[in-house]
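A favour, since you know our structure tokens better than I do. Just paste the record in under my message, thanks.
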Amino acid sequence: MKAAARLQLVKDEWKQSSLAQRDDALTYNRKLWTILVTSATNGDNPLPQEIKNNIASLGVFVFKQTMEAMADEEGNKLNSLISINRAIAEGLRARAE
């Protein structure tokens, strides 16, 4: 949720945010996803292979969207990243309860 909130703030204040602020939020998100994908796809992880593959594919999409968001002049590429992060966080939260 923290990554989604940071991306949402940058999107909401796109015109006023600096390139450094945008880069900071996108870098944070990329690091988070690097950890998630690496952990989930690790050979020692007991997740079924199909889920590992799905997480890896989603990670590739997130990394691609991140690169496109860095070049986006309007901030529209952040929408999918925000939505994905929120959906993953909500799913993890519901599973933990």
Observations:
- The mean pLDDT is 92.
- The first helix runs from residue 2 to 12.
- The two ends are 16 Å apart (CA to CA).
- The chain is about 80% helix and 0% strand.
